[in-house]
Amino acid sequence: MSYLTGLTAGGEAWTPQFLQNINWKTCLGCGRCFKACGRGVMALLALNEDGEIVDEDEDDDEVERKVMAVVNAANCIGCQACDRVCPKRCHTYAAALA
Question: How many CB atoms lie within 10 A of CB 41?
Fold first, then answer.
């Protein structure tokens, strides 16, 4: 199996790891990963007490908590900056096949 690889500025091989998923059970919804990513890969979603996505503008009483979600995985460049700032390490990554 062959994975997409690149080179660092120093000429070393590097295999980017692309964001696949965010674990809502451990996500705090703090937004640190969102701020670290300049590519629009994630968004903050509101959940009700049953863990279902709700429109936070519609009814604030229904919002139990907020979590980050992958909304545009195709924009991920595999830098893992989001993981470095996450206090809960709730991101899942995978290398891309070449």
Answer: 21
Q: What angle do CA 86, 21, 50 make, to 5 degrees?
A: 95
> Tens digits of per-residue pLDDT, 28-43?
999 999 999 999 999 9
On the question of pLDDT at 27 being above 70, the answer is yes
What total of structural domains would you count in the chain? 1
In a domain, 47, yes or no: yes
Question: Which residue type, as a one-letter code, is found at position 33?
Answer: C
- Picking from 67, 78, 75, the residue whose alpha carbon sits closest to that of residue 23 is 67
Q: Which domain holds residue 37?
A: 21-76+85-92
Q: What is the pLDDT of residue 59?
A: 63
